[in-house]
Specification:
alpha/beta; 349 residues; zinc ion binding; 10 helices; Rossmann fold; single chain; binds zinc ion; seven-stranded mixed sheet; ADH_Zn_CS; six-stranded parallel sheet
Length: 349
């Protein structure tokens, strides 16, 4: 079968990505084989392609951790999904026995690894073999392309829970990449009274935020984000800031835009430490909380919310659809050249 394999940092300043023929996986006890329908390119994959400083990947590995498809085989001992079922993959793999795993906080397991990042092959392949516990059935109301967005949507969903976000609250989402936009969708699903999105420049990402119904889209290249938020909230600030950009100045913006006693949720992949004025954290008595991926409640809750329409409009996040043959030239290279013209690129193997 065809697959996109990552062989590590090349010496060209780019990750060594190859589309090649590999053996089809064979199902073993406790695993499920998936015919992949759609798989999304994640910003983390793109960091590997661009050979950025931070890497948690263990090549060689078939990439792809945001995918959905149809179950084509199940191993012995698997009874929660059956052949022919439509599923989305929660790519975290973990020890299942430590103090964190047994309470459902497997996202902070010391043995955490990720399908399509570490030792198990991912969704940029015609077929993927994954541990059975990573497989979630989807209702028929969730199409496969949106199924490939369940993973990034669930990142936003976890952020809502970490920020204790709720009905009637106000929010600023910093960044309009895929996670910024899925966070916007989740804030709406949690019945926010007002959600603004700040973007670094005009372009496809800012446009998508507007189409998805952000109450305000603030272009930080031409507008003082904190001043704009203060004007929109009559000087109060927002209840919760969701930081998804990882930009050096982002925590300064977040601290300025959040209300007294408010909460900042950090969802970004930070490539370098960023300044944070802890005197303001004290004076405003802020809560700053990390939000890493997702834990036990998130996938089922997010899939249900997509299925019943509380999360809607997610297709606006998909800006490009390509086949596996074009994944490098039409996906990674295009995104590396100009992120702001694209949001989520989906690949059909
Ligand atoms: Zn990812
Ligand atoms: Zn564990």
């Amino acid at each position: 079968m065809k697959a996109l394999t990552y062989y590590g940092r090349g010496d060209t300043g780019r990750g060594d990505f190859r589309i090649e023929d590999v053996p089809e996986p064979t199902v073993v006890p406790g695993t499920v084989k998936i015919d992949v329908e759609w798989c999304g390119i994640c910003g983390s994959d793109l960091h590997e392609f661009e050979a950025d400083t931070v890497s948690g990947y263990s090549p060689p590995v078939i990439l792809g951790h945001e995918f959905a498809g149809t179950v084509s085989a199940v191993g012995d001992g698997v009874d929660h999904v059956r052949v022919g079922e439509r599923v989305a993959i929660e790519p975290f793999m973990y020890c299942q026995t430590c103090e964190f795993c047994i309470t459902g906080d497997y996202h902070v397991c010391r043995d955490l690894s990720v399908v399509g990042v570490h030792n198990i092959g991912g969704g940029f392949a015609e077929q993927a073999l994954v541990p059975a516990y990573t497989v979630h059935a989807m209702p028929d109301s969730v199409p496969f392309d949106i199924g490939a967005l369940v993973e990034p949507i669930t990142v936003g969903w976890h952020g809502m829970r970490k920020g204790n976000f709720g009905a009637g609250q106000t929010a600023l989402v910093i960044g309009a990449g895929p996670i910024g936009l899925t966070t916007l969708l989740c804030a709406q699903a949690f019945d926010s009274a007002f959600t603004a999105v700040s973007v670094r420049r005009p372009g496809a990402r800012a446009d998508a935020a507007a189409r998805l119904g952000a109450d305000a889209v603030i272009d930080s290249s031409s507008t003082d984000v904190v001043a704009a938020i203060m004007e929109m909230t009559k000087g109060r600030g927002v209840d919760v800031v969701f930081e998804t950009s990882g930009a050096a100045e982002a925590m300064t913006t977040a601290i300025g835009a959040v209300r007294m006693g408010g909460t900042i949720v950090s969802l970004a992949v930070w490539l370098a430490p960023a300044p944070c004025d802890y005197m303001q954290v004290l004076l405003k008595e802020l809560t700053i909380v990390g939000s890493k991926g997702y834990n036990k409640p998130d996938f089922p809750e997010a899939i249900a919310a997509i299925g019943d329409g509380r999360i809607r409009g997610a297709q606006e996040i998909i800006t490009t659809r390509i086949g596996l043959d074009e994944a490098i030239t039409g996906g990674f290279e295009v995104l590396a050249e100009d992120r702001s013209s694209h949001v989520k690129v989906l690949v059909s193997p």
